[in-house]
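Sequence in, structure out. Go.
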Amino acid sequence: MMQAQAMSFTFTVTFEDGGEEFDGLKLNQFGMHEVVDDVAFFVLRPPHPAAYRLVIYARDSDLDVIDHFYLAV
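Output:
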């Protein structure tokens, strides 16, 4: 049986125009993620109705090189 590889995740949240802050707070503070039983969950609770971009990055945790990032949009 093949073992699933461990992945690390991070994300960024911006307004559609690229802005990263709302009332002096970074938009990333309105999001969170967790991994449970090999499933990654992302929750975003934006501060007000608007168009946002959520960019999720994943990396094989067993590799130490930066060029093994995967982008999911």
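Check: The longest strand covers residues 7-15. The chain has one domain: 7-72.
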